[in-house]
Each structure stands twice: as C-alpha cells, then as structure tokens.
Amino acid sequence: MAEDLQKKVAELKDQGNKALTSGNTQEAIRLYGEAIKIDPTNHVLYSNRSAALAKAANYELALVDANKTVELKPDWVKGYSRKGTALSFLGRYEEAKAVYKEGLKLDPENQQLKDGVKDAESHLTGPAGSQPVGNPFAAPGVLDRIQRDPRTKGFLTQPDYMQKLKELQQNPQALGNYLQDPRIMTTLSVLLGVDLQQMGDEEMEDRTSSREPEPEPMEEEEEELTDAQKEAKEEKQKGNEAYKKKDFETALQHYDKAIELDPEDITFLTNKAAVYFEMDRIEDCIKESEKAIERGREVRADYKQIAKAFFRIGQAYFKQEKYKDAITYYNKSLTEHRTPEALKRCQEAEKLVKELETKAYIDPEKAEEEKAKGNDLFQKGDFPNAVKHYSEAIRRNPDDPKLYSNRAACYTKLAAWELGLKDCDECIRLDPKFLKGFLRKGAILQAMKQWGRAQDVYSKALDIDSNCAEAQEGYKKCLQTMSQDPEEIRKRAMADPEIQEIMSDPAMRVILDQMQRDPGALQEHLKNPEVAAKIQKLLEAGLIQIR
Question: For residues 509 and 521, what is the distance between their CA atoms, to the nearest angstrom?
C-alpha cells in the first residue's frame, strides 16, 4: 500500500478510536468502515469496528466483523475475544465457550478469555446445555453478582443507577440509551464476563405437557415427628393416591385435613394448588399457591418449596395464556431455586410472547416509512443506520421481499456477505420471481469468489427475464473467470464445503477415475440422479470438463 494511503488508514483508525472512547459509536463505525475500504485486509480495523458495533447493540454485524478478524489473523487472540463477546450478546453461549477455548490455545493465561469461558459455562444450565433467558439484566441472582464484584458494588447505593437497572430488566432494548454511562457498561461487562471498556490501537425444546407433575411425598425427616405431623403425612399420602386416580374432590379433602393437622408444612398447600390446576380452577390454584408462599416466608420453609409455589402460579397463568404474568412467576421461581423445568417453561412463554408481539407489531404503512428512511440513509452512505431502519421495516412487514432485498444491499456494502445471502434467500423464498433478489445474491457470491454458485443464480435470473443486462453481464463474467488459470479455479472450487465433500467421497473418486480412463462410463453414471448432481456441481466449479 502506498505510504499516503497507509497514513490515511492510520488517521481514520485514530479518529475512530477517539470517537468510540467518547461514546460516539456510530461515528466510530463510519470511520472504521472508511479505513476498511482503503485497507480491507487489516484485521485490527475489523476488530475495532466489531467492538463499536457491539457497543451500538448491533451484535450480528459485530459477529461478522469478528469472524473477519479471525479469518485475516487466526493467530491473534483478540479476534477470538471479539467473536466470543458477540456470540455471548446473541445468547449463543455454547459457541462462545468454544471460541474462547480456541483463543486459549494461543494464549493459555489470557484472563479475559478465561473469564469468557467461565461466564458462558454459567449460562449453560439445564439438560443438553439449554440456554437461559436472553436479557442479562433480568437473569436470576443479578443483584448478587453486582454486589459481589468490587467494580459494581458501589453502584447499588445510587438511585439513578437502580432506576436504569430496573428499566433494563424490563426492556433490554433500552441499553442503547445508556451506552455512554460507564456504570452500565461496567455492569454489562460483569454480567457477561467480558471487558467492554478495553479499547486500544490493537485492542478494542419440545413443549412440555401442561399437566402438573403429581404431588411428591415429603422426604423422610430425620427428626422425630409429633403425632399430628405423622397423621398429616398420612392424610397427604391419601390425597396423593386420590390425585393419581383423578378423584380430585377426595384429594382436596385429605389435603385440607393435612393442613388442619400441620399448618406449617406448605407442601399440603402446593399439592392442593396442583389439584385445582387439574380441575381448571385456575384462580383457586393461584390463591392456594400465594397462601403457600406467604406461609412459607413466615415459617422459613425450604426455598425449593417456595420456588415450587411460584412455579405453580406461572403454570396457572400459562394455562390462561397470560404469558407475561407466567414469565414473571417463572422468574420468581428461578430466583428461589433454578430448575431445568422452570427455565424451559419460562423460555417457552417468552417465545410465545415474542410471537404475539411480532404479530401485533405488523403495520405495512409504518414499514413504508421506515423503508423510506433506510433508502435516504443508503443514498448518503450511512449503511449501518440504513440497516436499522430496514430491520424495523421488516419487523413491521415481514412478508415484503423488497425490504430484505434492500437490507441485503446494505450488508453487501458492509461486506457482511453471509447476512446478505440470508436476506436474499428470504427475499427469494417470499417471491421466487423477484428478479432483484437473484441479482443481489449473484453479486454477493461474486464478491465471495464463488463463481459457480453465482453463475447458477444469474442463470435463474435469466429464466425470469432473459433480457436483463445485469444478469447477462454477471453470467458472462462468471464464465470468463472460471475459464482462467486452472490452478486458481481449483483453489476457489476447493474452498466450497460442498465440493470438498464430493471430492472426499471414495465412491466419487472411483467414478471420476473411471471417467478419465473410459469416457463412455459417464453415460452409465449419469443415470444415477445423485451422482449426476455431483458431477454437475464439479462441472459448474470448473474442476472437470466433458468433451
């Protein structure tokens, strides 16, 4: 690179660092982007822009830049830290853990990576590594974590901080309003196990049944029971047996007798609530569970039993399809005692709330307004903010293919190829005859140097409009490129995972060897549709030729 261009890149990077340090994340993103246009192989620029995008809560693009950082400089530890941070923000803790561990292979003593692994592992609870609620500010025990860390302990005495924390617990999207508050960013660092403040020249399940589990017998107590307590447990056992037979009225009678004999054992109340649940007497189920919680606090009952009472209330609200109320009580249950079942049900309720909110949020007119704002920003070259408006338009009208096409154009400008391809595919899925979707996809594949795939996409575009000049030109360029240096063709083709799989298939290698020795064998092999498809793929990639 010429000396004057190197100087310009360094200048833009320094300006970006200053903008990010002062909290002007959007300006920092723009400046790093300008530097990347001049020097697209500079891993530090992608790393710094990833940090800025993470601070702007644009985690998907932060991950794209982190991936690029690792791709350009696989032996640079900071790239793995950036990638792990972005994955953590997206709630993809299993992947984040793996990335942090990959970085530790390069620097086993890196404390930031160690903290990242520890935090990811703390989120991976439940069977098969089920993921927790996505809002780190609303996670169970959040105040305890803030209290234990010396960096954040003092914040809890500050009223304005507590007000902001409460708002973030209810609405994590409000984080964008507090990016310049160092207390909030430090808190987020503590909760995620990553250092968001560090910035330098090179550092910047299937649905479970709605049926309640049957009441469990109390564990045997080692201490001696009174006669009344023993009789109460006998009544409870009779109630459990009646419950199993679905003789609910009899079960209630036995549980009431148990409560009369031993009013301090709240399991009788939670079992009674379970009966009401099965009888669809939901309000009675809630009231009985509330009694159990109140009585449990008075007698200092086992926190697991209190958690069960909160869980019963959550189940009751879920059955009434009052999902937000259900989430509230599931979280209260998780605060008392974290169980996989409560966590899973909470996640399920959150998913349903999100689906309902998505449907209620749809407004085609407002989508057009956001689209117009995105178009204006696109014309001004402000692609990150254009993405935000196109994304809002998509939320308002998720079935409009043009919106995905427009956002794909932004991702193309930002070199976020995978996100662009994803939008193009969704655009084409919504409207298989939408020409612009194919043209955008072809252009992205060309930029990724996947000429065979790009040629196929342009071919489909020409099927829609045989006179489309852009499709004709794209198709022609793919053909010309693929007919150049054979070694270059081979390298590009072997970068395609599908090609790698075909070439590593022993059966295909035998077939290709037969074709080379006996061209007449080709016709026989083409009768097999699976083999024919693989041969076609190799032809498109330019790895083989048939004369």
Answer: 14
* SS3 state of residue 362: coil
**Half-sphere exposure of residue 409, counting CA atoms within 13 Å on the CB side?**
18
Encoding tokens for residue 482?
């693929």
d(CA 46, CA 69): 6
Token reading at 83: 């990638």
pLDDT value at residue 515: 80
Q: Which two tokens stand for residue 142?
A: 């959040």
Lookup result for tokens 């001004």: 380
Running DSSP on this structure, what letter comes out for residue 210? S
Question: Which residues are CB-contacts of 501 (< 8 A; sequence separation ≥ 6)?
Answer: none
Interior CA angle at 309 toward 320 and 218, to 5°? 130
pLDDT tens readout for residues 295-337: 988 888 888 889 999 999 999 999 999 999 999 999 998 888 8
Sequence length of the chain is 547
> Which element (helix H / strand E) includes 300?
none
> Which residue bears the tokens 């086992």?
302
Q: Which two tokens stand for residue 34?
A: 């300008």
User: What is the distance between the alpha carbons of residues 166 and 137, in angstroms, rounded to a whole number?
Assistant: 8
> Using an 8 Å Cβ cutoff, are 331 and 310 in contact?
no
Distance CA 32, CA 55 (A): 14
> What is the pTM (predicted TM-score) of this model?
0.41
Closest to 34 measured CA to CA, from 54, 51, 14: 14
Q: What is the DSSP letter of 224?
A: P
Query: Taking the CA atoms of the chain, what radius of gyration do you get in angstroms?
Result: 30
Q: Are 86 and 62 in contact (CB under 8 A)?
A: yes
Write the CB contacts of 76 (distance below 8 Å, at least 6 apart in sequence).
43, 47, 69, 70
Pairwise CA distance, residues 85 & 91, whole Å? 10
* Rounded distance between C-alpha atoms, residue 232 and residue 433, angstroms: 72
Residue-wise burial string across 201-214, b where 16 or more C-beta atoms lie within 10 A, e elsewhere: eebbeeeeeeebee
* Tokens read off for 247: 């003789």
